[in-house]
């Protein structure tokens, strides 16, 4: 019997990663055998570690914080999403050529539109944060044709730079786009607020006013954890109609990576239920 294909998730830190568990559930569903491990990569050694993995016969890798930009730089073939985000979370060896994809945005959109059943089309979207997480999801959100996208950030200049990267496409498709600081927001304006900052990890209050949401608003935290985050607490105070964390995004982005590697679409609902109950 042939040895199973080898996959890894590369990051630093990496102990917390649920990817091995998720991908092994996907493989069981489809009835294939894969080996998927966590790979802790020292800062500064990304290209060495990833080269060794692929040279030893590795077939695919997920890449997480803080290496998504290095994964983009390392890859030889890049999708348009990777080119736009300048970040990759999925690498695939195709006859020795390393191809890169970014499945984060597809994962977010599938969770919001498919699982939560909240259509983004014609809605006013607020994205908070302007780091790599926002870069990965901005274009896929724009492709859903919302009414408007505003990106705000503690450092407004970074939000401005990000919005510039989608301005042409937004003009072409009739989506209003704007950027600003955390306090440049009007009351009652937003139908969907996505937290793409890393501030949920801290205990600080989430830095937004509590009158921003429209009546049926969804507040979505790209972070996932068992505990309430500063963002989900804010969302309760802001009377969000619905609050969601990033577990669905995590599973959906994994499913898209799995599809790229194995050509099969796993049942994500079943995996989400197991993770929620675990
Ligand atoms: P990632 O790649 O995960 O997006 P990042 O590039 O370090 O990480 O970006 C983190 C984001 O969270 C940034 O938008 C950061 O704001 P600044 O650009 O002003 O640094 C935001 N962020 C982090 N901590 C924050 C806090 N306590 N309040 C508000 N924004 C915060």
Characterize the structure shown.
- The chain has helices at 19-30, 46-55, 68-74, 80-85, 104-115, 132-142, 156-164, 167-173, 230-237, 247-262, 268-277; strands spanning 5-11, 34-40, 60-63, 77-78, 90-94, 97-101, 124-128, 148-152, 176-180, 190-195, 213-221, 242-244.
- The chain is 39% helix and 23% strand.
- It has 278 residues and is α/β, with parallel strands linked by helices.
- The strands form 2 sheets. The chain has a 6-stranded mixed β-sheet, sandwiched between helices. The protein has a 6-stranded parallel β-sheet with strand order 9-8-7-10-11-12, with helices on both faces.
- The mean pLDDT is 95.
- The protein folds into 2 domains: 5-102 and 249-277, Rossmann fold; 105-245, Rossmann fold.
- It is globular.
- It contains 11 helices and 12 strands.
- Bound molecules: 2'-monophosphoadenosine-5'-diphosphate (ATR).
- Residues 65, 129-133, 153-155, 158, 197-199, 202, 204, 207 line the site of 2'-monophosphoadenosine-5'-diphosphate (ATR).
- 2'-monophosphoadenosine-5'-diphosphate (ATR) binds next to helix 6.
Describe the structure concisely for a colleague:
The protein is an alpha/beta fold and 278 residues long.
Topology:
Blueprint: E1 5-11, H1 19-30, E2 34-40, H2 46-55, E3 60-63, H3 68-74, E4 77-78, H4 80-85, E5 90-94, E6 97-101, H5 104-115, E7 124-128, H6 132-142, E8 148-152, H7 156-164, H8 167-173, E9 176-180, E10 190-195, E11 213-221, H9 230-237, E12 242-244, H10 247-262, H11 268-277
Parallel strand pairs: 1-2, 1-3, 4-6, 7-8, 7-10, 8-9, 10-11, 11-12
Antiparallel strand pairs: 3-5, 5-6
Bound molecules: 2'-monophosphoadenosine-5'-diphosphate.
């Amino acid at each position: 019997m042939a040895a199973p294909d080898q996959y890894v998730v590369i990051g630093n830190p990496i102990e917390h990663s649920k990817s091995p568990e998720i991908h092994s559930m996907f493989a069981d569903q489809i009835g294939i055998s894969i080996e998927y491990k966590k790979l802790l990569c020292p800062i500064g050694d990304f290209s060495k570690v990833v080269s060794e993995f692929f040279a030893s016969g590795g077939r695919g890798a997920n890449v997480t914080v803080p290496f998504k930009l290095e994964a983009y730089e390392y890859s030889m073939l890049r999708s348009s999403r990777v080119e736009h985000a300048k970040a990759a979370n999925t690498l695939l060896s195709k006859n020795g050529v390393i191809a890169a994809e970014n499945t984060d945005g597809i994962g977010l959109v599938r969770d919001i539109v498919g699982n939560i059943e909240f259509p983004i089309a014609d809605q006013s979207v607020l994205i908070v944060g302007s780091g790599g997480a926002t870069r990965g999801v901005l274009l896929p959100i724009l492709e859903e044709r919302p009414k408007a996208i505003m990106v705000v950030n503690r450092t407004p200049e970074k939000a401005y730079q990000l919005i510039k990267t989608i301005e042409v496409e937004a003009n072409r498709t009739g989506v209003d786009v704007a950027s600003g600081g955390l306090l440049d927001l009007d009351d009652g304006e937003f139908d969907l607020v996505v937290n793409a900052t890393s501030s949920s990890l801290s205990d600080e209050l989430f830095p937004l006013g509590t009158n921003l949401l429209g009546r049926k608003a969804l507040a979505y935290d790209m972070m996932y954890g068992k505990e309430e985050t500063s963002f989900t607490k804010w969302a309760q105070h802001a009377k969000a109609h619905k609050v969601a964390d990033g577990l669905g995004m995590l599973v959906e982005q994994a499913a898209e990576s799995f599809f790229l590697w194995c050509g099969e679409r796993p049942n994500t609902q079943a995996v989400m239920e197991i993770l929620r109950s675990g």
